[in-house]
Amino acid sequence: MKKVLVIGSLNMDIVINVNKLPKEGQTIYGNNISYFCGGKGANQAVALSKMNLETYMMGCVGNDDNGDKLINSLKENNVNTSMIKKCNNPTGLASIYVSEDGSNNIVIIKGANYNNTVDDIIKNKDFIKSFEAIVCQFEIPQDVILSAFKIAKELKIKTFLNPAPIIKYDEEILNYTDYLIPNETEFEELFKIKKPIQKISENDLNLKNKNINLIVTYGSKGVYLWKNNKFNLFESRKVNAIDTTAAGDSFIGGFVSNILSSNNIDEAINFGIDVASIAVTRKGAQQSIPSYQEVLDFYKK
Which of 68, 249, 266, 297 is catalytic? Predict the structure, then answer.
């Protein structure tokens, strides 16, 4: 069984269902409210575990009920939580508005997620040697990501970065990134490009790391891969989406699991799309992510 380490966030998701997402300055009524275990890091760890990978989660939660619930949820999904620490700051929170068409917007409270430190990485270096891949997001301190990816490069471990939420970032991280997986908004902010993705050139991107694999998720349109100096589209599946909260995290789970076994990036993208296509037909974050067998069974129909 392949072994993967996710270094990332754990948040309690507060999900409010609405008819339409509110406009700036607008007050609206919500239809209902739900609480789910989430955080991009935790969601991706669950997705990887459901793809039959031996998955470890490194992160930080508060010494509170939400922290306990998040750890227990990971354990229930067969994620190893021995590298999660507790601190005095409250567990991270995410306020998520989901409209009837499945679109969403999210506000994150960092909380304990920013108690991850470079020392946590350094003291676990010997153990990190045992992993085949490290997966990170931007919901934790960037110096932690950079430290982990530098060690990964030294040890020839594959690195995957989901730059979400998009913030001012240390470009050096990309020098140690094998697979960069933003969504369309994050891609535009990362590269400061406003033209249509099909018209983007190598000069527009100006990638310093020529070996990086750039994959851009585009929601219902599909996924774009930068290959042979242009973006190539992998079309999405046609499904009835009701909640896209964990779409990106589900894609990453499917993509990482497949690329580690097949080493075929086209195949891995299509499998990631399959996983995400099922997830968006279900409510919630972690509970919406299908198992590996569910994905195989669904596409036999």
Answer: 249
User: Which CATH number is 132's domain given?
Assistant: 3.40.1190.20
User: What is the share, in percent, of the chain residues with pLDDT greater than 90?
Assistant: 80
Q: How confident is the model at residue 222 (pLDDT cuts 50, 70, 90)?
A: very high
Nearest to 184 by CA among 212, 222, 210, 211: 222
Which residues are part of a known binding site for substrate?
Answer: 11-13, 39-43, 139, 249
pTM of the predicted protein model: 0.93
Domain span at residue 203 reads 3-298
| CB-based contacts of 160, cutoff 8 Å, min separation 6 | 133, 134, 135, 136, 177, 178, 179, 181, 252, 256
The span from the CA of 127 to the CA of 250, in Å, is 26
Q: How many domains does the chain have?
A: 1
